[in-house]
Write a structure and sequence with these properties.
Elements (H helix, E strand, L loop, with lengths): L7 E5 L2 H4 L45 H15 L3 E5 L2 H4 L10 H16 L3 E7 L17 H16 L6 E5 L9 H5 L6 H25 L4 E7 L3 E3 L4 H23 L4 H10 L9 H7 L4 E5 L4 E3 L23 E2 L5 E2 L1 H15 L3 E5 L17 H19 L5 E7 L19 E3 L11 E3 L1 H11 L6
Helix pairs in contact: 2-4, 5-7, 7-10, 11-12
């Protein structure tokens, strides 16, 4: 027993957090490019365009755009079977609405995929990962149905250009972030629920049509959704706390319900009825949602929440979900995230019980402050412990519970800027990058102790955890 022989071990990054080169080779601005850096607990600022004197970490990030060959070679040294990455939409269509794609951007990703194949690494590509082209804001971004067509034009370009090179696709990163951080999810700078749910509807429709298009262009294509793995426990056995927890999970899971089942669940439609929210449904849309169900469900997992009746639940804002509760049974990361390996097994079972389709964990990792010793070594035993305990729980879900897990891509295998704060000191990687919170450094890559540990994990196919 153990992990399947074809299990996809790897790591995951996002273009806006690793590439840099934000205007190189014809790239246009994205929503990520107008988010400043901040610190823990302080929201990142969204500016009106690029403002002189402010620091935007996505502009240089860790230079992966120019270092990708070196970085992928290091991934290969660890034995990666796959590399989950994203394509920057504004590299392909700089403003999002052009009729002709940017050839320089397409050529860059050809080179990235060719490098992956050189090392036998399977690309797993996120089509839109928190970086809507800024040029689409003139339409209202995802609040406007026209953006569905712009997205599908982008998808058609990718599916045709990279046919035979990419077969695993994710339509939107953490699509349920539309309920927590709508700017990141789709360039929606509003807390109005009607606006968010309209934008989410358009993303559901775009994803469903993209799934069908991907299958038509290449029958080998497998298209998944990507769920931000928010899950919660009740604060007590009080039935009211249990109901609040159920309400929390409905706010999150309705996204995967639509994408995996092909229709809006009754509980969400009743909520819309109560709140006076009207979906912009046109003739044929509901059939498109049914026909465009995803092939698999991928998700991120970092922590669990505690929910109850005694503190207000805050969903919206750049700092994300706040419940007001701390789980006394868990250790906390340096950034206040509860470390809960058993929660991963719980979520794997919850999602498989609900949808009965293959699952893939495409983000899981520990953000921490790493110290470089005088000899250049980086001893990150805390990261090894974190990942080891999570992988053990994933293994139980496979071996004991029978959950079909396709793969695991740790976030992020190389240090990248943090999405929540834009910091560099919140490091996740097996590979250290010499860049600080202000973008200064040599950009030199250095292996941490966890690099060698993960290499052994993959070599043993999860036998040595």
């Amino acid at each position: 027993m153990g992990f399947p022989k074809d299990f996809l071990w790897g790591g995951a990054t996002a273009a806006n957090q690793c590439e840099g080169a934000y205007l190189t080779d014809g790239k246009g601005l994205s929503t990520a490019d107008v988010m400043t850096a901040s610190a823990h607990g302080v929201p990142r600022e969204i500016t009106d365009g690029v403002v002189e004197g402010k620091y935007y970490p996505s502009h240089n990030a860790v230079g992966h755009y120019h270092h990708f060959k070196e970085d992928i070679a290091l991934f290969a040294e660890m034995g990666f079977k796959c590399y989950r990455m994203s394509i920057a939409w504004s590299r392909i269509f700089p403003n999002g609405d052009e009729e002709v794609p940017n050839e320089e951007g397409l050529k860059h990703y050809d080179e990235v995929f060719d490098t992956c194949f050189q090392f036998g690494i399977e690309p797993v590509v996120t089509i839109s990962h928190f970086e809507t082209p800024l040029g689409l804001l003139k339409y209202g971004a995802w609040e406007n149905r026209r953006v569905v067509d712009f997205y599908l034009s982008y998808c058609e370009t990718l599916f045709n250009r990279y046919k035979g090179k990419v077969k695993y696709w994710l339509t939107f990163n953490e699509i349920n972030v539309m309920s927590t951080k709508p700017w990141m999810a789709g360039g929606v700078n509003s807390d109005d629920e009607q606006v968010s749910m309209t934008a989410a509807y358009h993303q559901f429709l775009a994803s469903a049509k993209a799934v069908q298009m991907a299958h038509e262009i290449d029958s080998d294509n497998k298209v998944g959704m990507m769920y931000n793995g928010h899950t919660a426990y009740p604060a007590s056995s009080d039935p009211e706390d249990m109901q609040r927890t159920n309400d929390f999970m409905h706010t999150m899971l309705f996204y995967s319900d639509v994408q995996c089942r092909g229709y809006y669940p009754a509980y969400k439609l009743k909520e819309f009825e109560r709140e006076g929210i009207i979906l912009p449904i046109l003739d044929g849309d509901l059939e498109e949602l049914k026909k465009g169900k995803v092939d698999f469900l991928s998700f991120s997992y970092y922590m669990t929440h505690v929910v109850g009746k005694n503190t207000p639940l805050v969903f919206k804002g750049l700092n994300g979900v706040k419940t007001g509760y701390k789980n006394p049974y868990l250790q906390m990361s340096d950034w206040g995230w509860g470390i809960d390996p058993m929660g991963l097994r719980y979520l794997l079972n919850l999602l498989y019980d609900r949808y009965q389709i293959p699952l893939m964990i495409v983000e899981n990792g520990l953000g921490a402050v790493d110290k470089v010793e005088e000899d250049g070594s980086i001893h990150d035993s805390y990261r090894i412990d974190y990942l080891s305990e999570h992988l053990k729980e994933m293994k139980k879900a496979i071996e004991i519970d029978g959950v079909p897990v396709m793969g695991y891509t740790m976030w992020g295998p190389i240090d990248i800027i943090a999405a929540s704060t834009g910091e560099m000191k919140k490091r996740y990687g097996f590979i250290y990058v010499d860049v600080d919170d202000n973008g200064n450094g040599t950009f030199k890559r250095m292996k941490k102790d966890s690099f060698y540990w993960y290499k052994e994990v993959i070599e043993s196919n999860g036998g040595n955890l």
